[in-house]
Structure formats: C-alpha cells, structure tokens
C-alpha cells in the first residue's frame, strides 16, 4: 500500500538553531498533509497543515514546505527551544484516511 | 486538553480479561477513529466511524470490538488479548476529514 516515511529517525540540534524535519510520501493523490508533535506520554498534537494547492505555509516559528514534484514535505522550526523536543510525525490524507510516517525524534540541547 | 478525552490513561489486563477503552470528543466533530501506536511503528488505523456508522475496519482482529453510540462517544471493547496487543491506543476525531485531533491515549499492557 501507499506509505509515508521519514528520512531521519533522530535529529539533534542546539537551542536557538533552526531545525528541518523531512518527510517523503508516495501517494501522489494525497491532497492534504499535517505535521504532528508528540511528547512523551501524550497523544499527537497538531502543529501545522498544508493543502496540495499550496507549496508553503507559515505558522508561529514553524513553516511547512510541500514539493509535489518529488513528493516531499518538510517542517522547519525556527529558533528551536528545549520545549520543542519531541517526536514529529508527518501524515498524508489519501482516500479519506490519514496515513502516518514513523516519526523523527527531535532532541534540543541547551 | 485537546477536546478529545480518553479513559483510562493506563490499563493492565490479563489475557482472559474483558475491558473497555472510552473516548469522548467535545469538538462537535462528525468522525471518530481508533489508532494503535506500537514502539518503532507508524500509527496504525484500526477503525473509522462517520456519523456513528462504521466506515472502515482495517483488518483488525475480532478480539477488538468498537462501539460508537453517538457522534461524541467511542468505545473499544477488548477481550482475550495477546501480549503483542500491548500498545498506546489513541482516539481521534475530525470534521469532514479535517482538523484531526487526538486524545492522550490509553497505555495498554497485556500480561
């Protein structure tokens, strides 16, 4: 079946750096994408979403970029903080259900 | 709080027990979902309910039995589970496939 995957299982950054988390998707029919953050002991928390008719969307300290040509999604976090340490998932909406990647662990050191 | 509440937060059960997980959403959404999250695996969709009607059963074993009495409540009834069923069970809701919101999950351990 179709799948969503993440390139890096763990990303370690220094506080204040910018972080980039990448995601590849394989379903070219997917038209909606979401990034989630999951902290230990909690459920996934919505960060930002983007529809396929856009290639960039910005939120507070976060930016999602969508490249439909190569089926690639990225999450950029500006001025990363220790509180950003978590697992980040991308998800794609295809055929009315969300499919998730395995997740990337972001570790932020002071 | 996300607007999706799951109880209990933790559950330990024997393989011969029967237990139920509960999910309640206060967002006015029309769809609810059960997901299973195991270590080092992507989130796995188990069941989907739209307007309290089951629209998807993702090849889940019959020892997991969902129930959706109305658009705000979702249950997952468990019986004769196996140790490999130990996982975090997440409930989510959405409105017309958008605004997916998750609860904090039930950490299930089968002994």
Question: What do you see in this structure?
Answer:
- The complex is a heterodimer of chains A (110) and B (111).
- With 110 residues, chain A is mainly beta.
- In chain A, 0% of the residues lie in helices and 57% in strands.
- Chain A has no helices and 11 strands.
- In chain A, the strands form 2 sheets. In chain A, strands 2, 4, 5, 9, 10 and 11 form a 6-stranded mixed sheet that branches.
- Chain A is globular, with a radius of gyration of 13 Å.
- The model of chain A has no long low-confidence stretch (mean pLDDT 89).
- In chain B, the strands form 2 sheets. In chain B, strands 2, 4, 5, 6, 9, 10 and 11 form a 7-stranded mixed sheet that branches.
- Chain B has no helices and 11 strands.
- In chain B, a hairpin with a 2-residue loop joins β7 (64-70) and β8.
- With 111 residues, chain B is an all-beta fold.
- The A-B interface holds A 4, 32, 34, 36, 41-46, 89, 91, 93, 96-103 and B 2, 4, 6, 40-43, 45, 48, 56, 90, 92, 97-105.
Biggest interface found: A-B, 21 and 21 residues
Helix content of chain B: under 10%
Query: Uncertain runs of chain B with pLDDT below 50, 5 residues or more?
Result: none
H/E element sequence of chain B = EEEEEEEEEEE
Average pLDDT figure of chain B = 91
How many whole angstroms does the radius of gyration of chain A measure?
13 Å
Our Rg estimate of chain B from Cα atoms comes to: 13 Å
Structural class of chain B: mainly beta
Question: How many helical stretches of chain A?
Answer: 0
Number of helices of chain B: 0
Q: Strand fraction band of chain A?
A: over 45%
Assembly status: heterodimer
Total strand segments of chain B: 11
Which percent range fits the helix content of chain A? Answer: under 10%
End-to-end gap of chain A: 41 Å
Features:
heterodimer; A: 110 residues; mainly beta; six-stranded mixed beta sheet; five-stranded antiparallel beta sheet; 57% strand; B: 111 residues; seven-stranded mixed beta sheet; four-stranded antiparallel beta sheet; 0% helix
